[in-house]
């Protein structure tokens, strides 16, 4: 798959992670097609890609919507490898989904082997505030621990939906630019990172 | 519309048949817009389900690997895809759940399945499949390479990533050492190989030596060629084995044969049970089918057993044939039954033509039935007749005979309408080949003639019976015959049609005749109850009775004979028939007129007249009638007029409405008129004669003489009597039939005047007083009867007055005086005459 037509806009690969039923697909579909899907149908692995304008520049976003269910935990590694940025979603109405974010974070770090991978902690179902189980402070505390932003969204009302995707893309973009600089300027840093990987293993 | 763009796929990979939700833009506006759906190069249009312009659901095809999702719409053309679907084929192993059935044989052969790979060249254990590095990533990293050890494009990195991405560095190092050792061992020479395996080589040498020793020992004891012995032993073994197995095989063969034989016997069991089944005669159809089966199977058999049984069966079948034939010839039997028998006979290869036989039997049966029925009823009628010894019983017997005849006709019709359709349908079955017989086309005419004969015979018998008279039962019988017509709707029935026509004609004639008869008998029905009619005077019930009788008859006619059934011809197309009907109608009217005539009694003896002579109207005769003669005559006259003016025209209308040939009733009307005038004349005569007869005696009563000299003091009694008598007649006529008054009274007055003039002319001498008296009397009478005095009467009166000697002035005065007195005195008596002008 190495066809490379010259003027291809930059491609940012985003991966949706999180427990089953927290609204990963809902967020994705809301972002992609402005529609809110009410009926729940567990996802296996869905792929979406479209052109968006990010800060005046046309880019392509590729969203991999993964399965939240534990049944698919084994194949996640493979998916995570290809991701450039992660939206780690939980439902503010479900405590367990919030706890599970910890595991997802760890798995991503293990696979990507990069502490600074673009990552957003997303508390979905913001419209169901009356059923809230995870306090804002709790979530923000965890995000702070990890050094990532925390955003509360609602796939139903589309609140902050565009924001999370665009924020993540910006991070990915700046990350890529940084990488380019490094590889162009000092190839050593790159090697250093690889060495680092070896020591962890 | 722009070309469709697929931007989303859910899920993005799966085995063939995965339900895939395709999302994007411009995916068509309705199901029929989509004209192409291709996933990984596989056409999936058939399974595509359009949901919205952004969403289509389809099932993936058997494509393998990554591929675009291309949607083609009617308006947008072929589209593009930003996402890709990966199809893969799941290898079904023995421990994997599968939706399809996996042949076990395959999975048992562990070694042959591809899933088990060769030993790892690094000597390391294989990683679990789940942690495999994604193939497409590898392809991206190492284009044009693969991880197959035997491939030219083998890439060690690929191989390591694919198989050992999770192995630790130490393991890999150990693996490298292992590989190196293996390679080194290949490179060292044969010597080193021997060195490495000294002990094994030595062991082999020792074994070889031991073998040689043993072999030489054998040569010593058994000779050089040991194969001979072995061959012999083998031969022996073979013979032994053969012997052993021969017994077994033979036994088996025998058992097989027996089983075969049993099977055959079982299969043909029915043949052996056939004779008993035939004996029981339960179900012919079953027997016949078994028989034909047996014929087919064993007809040419050489097996004695079968032959014997078959002959027995044939004998029995012959019996059955006989029996069936007998049954066929037995009537009555239902149509279905007969058809079945015929079919059975045909199946049994009956010699002859059972179908035709059945038809003949049926035809004969019908004939027999008809004749039997006829003779039965003939006897009945005959047995009724001899009893009629006495006169009064005669009519009863007659009625009984008629009833018998009607029943006979009904039965004959029943026979035809029940049996002929059966016969016809049997014939149709026969000639259409439905009875599976070969039929003779020539017999078709014969059959038709036969049916026709049956019908003709029936008609003949019916006509014969009916010819003896049915009187009032004609309409009934007509109905019955018509029912036959309906029953034979599908069968040529001209004969019956003719019969119906005959019946209709007879019916018309008969009813008219009967009506005439009944009209005659109306005489007895007259009850002389008087009904006052303002225009026609007092009438009786007779006219209305007659009208009712007539109308009843007509309505019966309308319902029976005149109603046109299907295919029935117009009745009165024949002019002879028309005139006959007219004659009958006239007969009815003549009878009526005669009836009226008889009732009026005018031709009767004079007894009644003498009784009512000058009697008061209240006088009652001792005759059977409650009315006296005059009243009856007057009633008859009224009846005549009423009939003439009201009833007859009404009846004429009814008649013509009944679609009978138009009737000219002028003759009956004129007859009625003449009867009326005859009766009137008679009445007048009878009333006038006594009246006039009394004038002369009364005039000369008490030796009265015109010559005598006396003083006239008033009108003499005889004149008063004349007036009184005329008044009586007037009263009677006025009461009974006012319209006749004028005619009767003028006649009476004329006669009276004539009589008076005759009497006056007879007087030879008349004194002065006599003259005064006579003038007074006559003038008084003339005055009193002035209203009804015709010119002729007036002439008579003046003749009478002329006969009286002329009066002097004084006498005239006397007369005028007395007349004035008289007028005053008689005012009340004369009022009725005055009343005429008022009425």
TrEMBL record, chain A:
<dbReference type="InterPro" id="IPR005225">
    <property type="entry name" value="Small_GTP-bd"/>
</dbReference>
<keyword id="KW-0378">Hydrolase</keyword>
<protein>
    <recommendedName>
        <fullName>small monomeric GTPase</fullName>
        <ecNumber>3.6.5.2</ecNumber>
    </recommendedName>
</protein>
<keyword id="KW-0636">Prenylation</keyword>
<dbReference type="GO" id="GO:0007165">
    <property type="term" value="P:signal transduction"/>
</dbReference>
<dbReference type="Pfam" id="PF00071">
    <property type="entry name" value="Ras"/>
</dbReference>
<keyword id="KW-0472">Membrane</keyword>
<dbReference type="GO" id="GO:0003925">
    <property type="term" value="F:G protein activity"/>
</dbReference>
<keyword id="KW-0547">Nucleotide-binding</keyword>
<keyword id="KW-0449">Lipoprotein</keyword>
<keyword id="KW-0488">Methylation</keyword>
<keyword id="KW-0342">GTP-binding</keyword>
<dbReference type="InterPro" id="IPR020849">
    <property type="entry name" value="Small_GTPase_Ras-type"/>
</dbReference>
<dbReference type="GO" id="GO:0005886">
    <property type="term" value="C:plasma membrane"/>
</dbReference>
<comment type="similarity">
    <text>Belongs to the small GTPase superfamily. Ras family.</text>
</comment>
<dbReference type="InterPro" id="IPR027417">
    <property type="entry name" value="P-loop_NTPase"/>
</dbReference>
<keyword id="KW-1003">Cell membrane</keyword>
<dbReference type="InterPro" id="IPR001806">
    <property type="entry name" value="Small_GTPase"/>
</dbReference>
<dbReference type="GO" id="GO:0005525">
    <property type="term" value="F:GTP binding"/>
</dbReference>
UniProtKB/TrEMBL annotation, chain B:
<dbReference type="GO" id="GO:0048731">
    <property type="term" value="P:system development"/>
</dbReference>
<dbReference type="GO" id="GO:0048468">
    <property type="term" value="P:cell development"/>
</dbReference>
<dbReference type="GO" id="GO:0000145">
    <property type="term" value="C:exocyst"/>
</dbReference>
<dbReference type="InterPro" id="IPR013783">
    <property type="entry name" value="Ig-like_fold"/>
</dbReference>
<dbReference type="InterPro" id="IPR014756">
    <property type="entry name" value="Ig_E-set"/>
</dbReference>
<keyword id="KW-0268">Exocytosis</keyword>
<dbReference type="InterPro" id="IPR029175">
    <property type="entry name" value="EXOC2/Sec5"/>
</dbReference>
<dbReference type="Pfam" id="PF01833">
    <property type="entry name" value="TIG"/>
</dbReference>
<protein>
    <recommendedName>
        <fullName>Exocyst complex component 2</fullName>
    </recommendedName>
</protein>
<comment type="similarity">
    <text>Belongs to the SEC5 family.</text>
</comment>
<dbReference type="InterPro" id="IPR002909">
    <property type="entry name" value="IPT_dom"/>
</dbReference>
<dbReference type="GO" id="GO:0015031">
    <property type="term" value="P:protein transport"/>
</dbReference>
<comment type="subunit">
    <text>Component of the exocyst complex.</text>
</comment>
<feature type="domain" description="Exocyst complex component EXOC2/Sec5 N-terminal">
    <location>
        <begin position="120"/>
        <end position="833"/>
    </location>
</feature>
<dbReference type="GO" id="GO:0006887">
    <property type="term" value="P:exocytosis"/>
</dbReference>
<dbReference type="InterPro" id="IPR039481">
    <property type="entry name" value="EXOC2/Sec5_N_dom"/>
</dbReference>
<keyword id="KW-0653">Protein transport</keyword>
<keyword id="KW-0813">Transport</keyword>
<feature type="domain" description="IPT/TIG">
    <location>
        <begin position="4"/>
        <end position="85"/>
    </location>
</feature>
<dbReference type="Pfam" id="PF15469">
    <property type="entry name" value="Sec5"/>
</dbReference>
<comment type="function">
    <text>Component of the exocyst complex involved in the docking of exocytic vesicles with fusion sites on the plasma membrane.</text>
</comment>
<dbReference type="GO" id="GO:0006893">
    <property type="term" value="P:Golgi to plasma membrane transport"/>
</dbReference>
